[in-house]
Amino acid sequence: MDIPAPTPDQLLAAIAPITGSRAAAPRIHQGRVSLILDVTGLSAAGRDGMAEAATAALRAVPGVAEVRVAMTSERVDRRIIAVGSGKGGVGKSTLAANLAVALARAGRRVGLVDADIYGPSVPRLMAVEGTRPEAEDKTLIPVMTPAGIPVLSMGQLVRPGQALAWRGPMAASALGQLIDSAWGDVELLVVDLPPGTGDVQLSMISKWRPAGAVIVSTPQDLALIDATRAIDLFNQANVPVIGLVENMAGYLCPHCGKGSDPFGQGGAEAAAARLGIGFLGRIPLDIALRTASDAGQPPAAGDDALATLFAGLAGQVNDWLDRTPRPGV
Ligand SMILES: Nc1ncnc2c1ncn2[C@@H]1O[C@H](COP(=O)(O)OP(=O)(O)OP(=O)(O)O)[C@@H](O)[C@H]1O
């Protein structure tokens, strides 16, 4: 005796525990079921896992001989946060890496791009030094880090020193390769820009327009003059500045516990007020931050005072993202 064909509602009930609201009622014709799954926001593994489990559940329904699954996904509306500085060595990469980790802990789906062609340091900071990204149809697949953040770095694309002679358009196109990669469900890309305010940086940020920028500076006057130039750079490209972070602000001696301010104090906060931009906070000069960074263990992933500090910075960036409308929305 022929088994009566299951109804679409029966089929839907069979997969509901697996697919939730992601499946429309399946269609069935002569034992062949077609199912459309909305996989927006799922990782590649999550998508495949859901499709496989739904297929198995449908195959177990009497009267089903074959299952075809089509997956659809809305385009992920990805935003870029650029981390810039007027000059090198102020801790821009350290901040970018820890900000990415802290934003992920705050619930964002974050990826990290190291666009610093002059000295890419993100692979070391995130413990994936020497790991090359694979490519699928010329699209790079970001490298997953122990902190759970996917990263791509200029250092993975070019030999050391090779990019030094690049002009703006070349750097912008290389950055494009990093940004237009297989980021999956990543909604926020933190981009560590090269230090300085030259054509390379301008060409990069005008072509790959960030939603906002975070500027890093040390408290010294000189660094602040450089930071002001970095702010001008973003103004020229019409990129809103989210705020300024003061790094290496005050030193707590690990031996005597006494605090001192080798680079002065409060300069960045005053400068931010003068320039009419937000002040996001200060990070002390802390040997523990340097040793953890060198060991590829971003302190933002831990649970000490530095983690709390980075969580505070990320919270402010998070709030800014929440209250800043996306273009066209
Ligand atoms: N607050 C801090 N306390 C102690 N060390 C720090 C701090 N911030 C950064 N460093 C150390 O300073 C060095 C430079 O930092 P980082 O590479 O992040 O700077 P950068 O601005 O990205 O430099 P570059 O422009 O050369 O890429 C690193 O060794 C880093 O560990």
UniProtKB/TrEMBL annotation:
UniProt key word ATP-binding: yes
GO BP field: iron-sulfur cluster assembly
Entry keyword Ribosomal protein: no
A Pfam cross-reference name: ParA
InterPro entries from the UniProt entry: Mrp/NBP35_ATP-bd, NUBPL-like, P-loop_NTPase, YlxH/NBP35
Swiss-Prot/TrEMBL keywords: ATP-binding, Hydrolase, Iron, Iron-sulfur, Metal-binding, Nucleotide-binding
SUPFAM superfamilies from the UniProt entry: P-loop containing nucleoside triphosphate hydrolases
Residues annotated for ATP binding in this entry: G86, K87, G88, G89, V90, G91, K92, S93
GO molecular function, a single term: ATP hydrolysis activity
Function as written in the Swiss-Prot or TrEMBL entry: Binds and transfers iron-sulfur (Fe-S) clusters to target apoproteins. Can hydrolyze ATP.
Assembly mode: Homodimer.
Protein family (similarity comment): Belongs to the Mrp/NBP35 ATP-binding proteins family.
Alphabetized PANTHER family for the sequence: IRON-SULFUR PROTEIN NUBPL
Protein name: Iron-sulfur cluster carrier protein
Organism: Sphingomonas changnyeongensis
